[in-house]
Amino acid sequence: MKSFNLVLISFLLITTLVFAQSKDEIEIRRLEKHWTELLDKGDTNSLLKIWSKDYVVNNPNGKIVTPKEIVSLMKSGHIFPAVERIIEKITFNQNIAIVMGKELQQPEDLTTNLEEWIPRRFTNVWIRKGKSWQLIARQSSEITRKNK
Description:
36% of the residues lie in helices and 36% in strands. It is α+β, with helices and mostly antiparallel strands. The longest helix has 19 residues, at 23-41. The radius of gyration is 19 Å and the shape is globular. Residues 1-20 form the signal peptide.
C-alpha cells in the first residue's frame, strides 16, 4: 500500500509540474486580456504604461504604426472594433515572450454574430523590464479564403 501511495503521489506531482503554467505565462495571458480591454475602453493612459515606448504595430492594413499614431487616432474619436483573441502558443526566450494565435475582429456593422467576424492571425511580442512585462511589437493579418 505504501508503494502504491508513493507512486500515486509521484505521478500527481510530475503531472502538476508538466502541465502547470509558469508564473510568466499566467501573467502574459492576463496582460493579453487586459490590454485588449483597455483598447476597448479607449484608456490611452493605461495602454501607454503597458506598451513599450518603442512599441510598433504592423496592422491588418499593412501599415506600421507607433503609440503616438494609435493614441492620436483614439483621441480623434476612433473606436477599435471588438476582438476575440485565441492564444495558441506562448514561447519564452530569456526576457522575451512571443504570443501567437488567432483572433476574430468585429466587422464595421458591429454584428455580435461571431461567425461573421473577420478572422486574423496575430503575433504579439512582450519584453520583461525588471519585474514587469511590456508589449513591444504586434503584427496582425486578415486570413483570406486562400489562407484558411
